[in-house]
Amino acid sequence: MSVVGNLAAGLNYTVRNNSEVPAGTEKTDTFTAVNLSYAFGKEK
What we know:
It comes from Oleomonas cavernae. Pfam families: DUF481. By secondary structure, this protein is an all-beta fold. The chain has one domain. The protein is 0% helix and 57% strand. Strand 1 and strand 2 form a beta hairpin.
């Protein structure tokens, strides 16, 4: 998503299920990512 001018942001949330894990361990992993980008130069 464009924030302001050449600045952009992105969000990502991933859920992954593992079928074989050690006893007493959660079978679901979750990952969260935040991405902030800036483009240098002129826009065309």
